[in-house]
Amino acid sequence: MKKIVKAAVLITVAASLLSIVSCNGGSKKAKGGASSAGGEKHYKFGFTCMDQSNPFFVLIEKTIREEVEARGDKLISVDPANNVTRQIQQVEDVIAQNVDGFFLNPAEAEGIIPALDQLKSAGIPIVNFDTEVADMDKYVTTYTGSDNYNAGKVCGEDLVKKCPNGGDIIVLDSPTMNSVVDRTNGFLDAIKGHNFNIVAQQDAKGNLQVSMGIAEDLLQAHPDVVAIFGGNDPTALGALAAANAAGIKNTRIYGVDGSPDIKRELASSSSLIEGTGAQSPINIAKQSVELMYKIKAGEAVDPRYPVPTFFISKDNVSKYGTDGWQ
Known about the structure:
The protein is α/β, with parallel strands linked by helices. The chain is 45% helix and 22% strand.
């Protein structure tokens, strides 16, 4: 009798243990940071961009986060504030959190390579957005971003129409940012052969405050420039603040982004802002997410997915509105 009772107890304990194991086995870690519950995989992604004080990148991060979290997944976001050394360290920290993919926009195209090496070694796919990294084909699974060359080109074409006799101009670029380099090249190619003289070309780092300080000095030396080209809208707005403070009245200022702030200036008849090569951060963000999930599903993706750019001026700004991004 004792043997029968003892056997019954052992069977009950074994059944309980089997039940616990079965319950715990319903949610288990998949490869990388992915987990599966009831057969549905969930992912954890990393995100970094050059500077989240820029409204363009604020909206990209917000849109990517919303799209990822709507699928029940997680986004770990870091902001290097335009410091590539900090960005490399932050990427290392996120890799240690066992992420399944990375949305990446570099503070410096060349400088970010140590972080790309680590991502590659960890087997983490990269969706590179807005600004191409150096040696992209070696590191990046796919890229999506604006047609930056065209964004600068349409600004140059407008300047040629508005100033057919040419004149002195200032260019505020950012040579470590491939997106701004492409925009600047598009602008310069468009004005080539039209009697424009570049009196100064300096690195404004894509930052409003930096641009304002540089433009203040340059406008003291060259108050009669017919135009200023900024590599993005914050740069153009910094140049605008400097021009307004100096009492400049006849300079045309161009930017690239199509931000609400620049569109509000375009809607004002008294502003020196002449136009912007517009892009859509919302479309870039949504395309980035779509591509990441295709990669995780094992689907083939192309190396590049360009997003169209176009010109917004005082003449057509009402079509796009001033309250948000297009």
